[in-house]
Amino acid sequence: MSYYKKLTATDLIKISGFVPRNRILWKNEINEEYSHDELTTEHYYPEMVVKINSTQEVSNILKYANEHKIAVTVRGAGTGLVGAAVALKGGIVLDMTMMNHFLELDEENLTLTVEPGVLLMDLASYVEEKGFFYPPDPGEKSATIGGNISTNAGGMRAVKYGVTRDYVRALEVGLADGSIVEFGGKVVKNSSGYDLKDLIIGSEGTLGIVTKIVLKLLPLPKKNISLLIPYQNLEKAIRTVPLIIKAKAIPTAIEFMEREVICDAEKYLGRKFPDNQADAYLLLKFDGNSVEEIENYYDNVAKICLQQGAIDILIADTDERSEGIWKARGAFLEAIKSSTTCMDEVDIVVPRSEVNTFVEYVHELRAKLNIRMKSFGHAGDGNLHVYILKDDLDDEQWHELLTLAMDKMYAKAKELNGKVSGEHGIGLVKKVYLEQSTPKTAIDLMKKIKAVFDPNNILNPGKIC
Fold first, then answer.
1. What is the mean pLDDT of the chain?
2. What residue range is the signal peptide (predicted)?
């Protein structure tokens, strides 16, 4: 017998008292898209989807679910890659995409208050039009800010500006029993006890459901320039990165990519990349308040790159040139996905000094296993995205090789003092690797924290730990 209550028509009637029936999907009304996220191949259907429109609705549903032991999974745009938004135990999915309002721009305190369903691309446009800057920049611009907070997604600008956690001032959160609490505030400093806000960030909806967010903003840099730097091989490209960091002219972003991924993006987008002749590339972005300021940053970096074997330095100093390069970079995931029948990924993070070691290991591993694997990532912060492709393998071969490849890559990351995830999270599919790579004492502490926040284990059960 399942621990969780199966929903009945009586539950539908009760929940329809909290939320209008036209915002509830019940059983056969539930679209297939709610059974998976962007990458998870296994499908788990919820018994009910509720399209949330207010904090009070979250509170009422959580209180009811907690009393009746009904599983509740929170979901944003569904762009995740680890199954965190999938209803493993059925129950209720709370679709937060209708809570997508901008609530307050506080120019005196440099904060923006939003609801969790605001899309990342809309958030960026909103603040930039007003002369402000929200630095976190995950590749999936159609993700919600609530989803970003759930995984602490960092994106490409983390090397200079940090990750999502660094820009969250306060959170309003619905707890498992339906109570609504606020963690943090508009203050810049806060040493007032345990930082419960930071526990919620990255918890993937297992500790509480975020209903309001106060974000820190920065003044918008007036100019940015990108450098596309081709190399004969990836080893030379990656080994340049520590020297760039040491040069103390830290770029906004330092990305690495290989020609085969660029060719995938060209085919997917139907447009040419500025250069696709070299085997490997670094892509750097610099920002500042004037062209002269930025040139002072990148002149020395360009010299370092040429000294380390760069073939050329291609400068994108107009919005049009820069946009074309970064649009191609942003399309890598979808381009790789469109080139195969099925794929899975690892989101490993290693010390920056070990990026080349890990990438070289991936190349050796794919040759040894004779399976296609493609990689790109954030060379400036050590976060690597490696995709294992099924192509025409049968299901048995695929699962065998996929498991072997992942086991070996996560073991290598542990050997290099790395971690399981840099920004995609743990969710459903990476749990075993978190347990293997994390001391038992730490896992036990996570479980105890979960039990304090959610004694009946109704919030996104079966995820993380």
1. 95
2. none
Q: Is the pLDDT of residue 1 over 70?
A: no
CATH number of 223-333: 3.30.70.2190
- Candidates 3.30.465.10, 3.40.50.300, 3.30.470.20, 3.40.640.10; correct CATH number of 102-219? 3.30.465.10
β-bridge partners, 112: 105, 215
Domain with CATH 3.30.465.10 in the chain: 102-219
Q: pTM higher than 0.70, yes or no?
A: yes
218-219 vs 343-346, strand pairing mode: unpaired
Class of the domain covering 340-426: alpha beta
Separation between Cα atoms, residue 77 and residue 117, nearest integer Å? 8
Q: How far apart are CA 399 and CA 417, in angstroms?
A: 27
Q: How far, in Å, CA of 76 to CA of 73, rounded?
A: 10
Dist. CA 425–CA 202, nearest whole Å: 7
In terms of Cβ atoms closer than 10 Å to its own Cβ (0-12, 13-18, 19+), residue 344 is buried
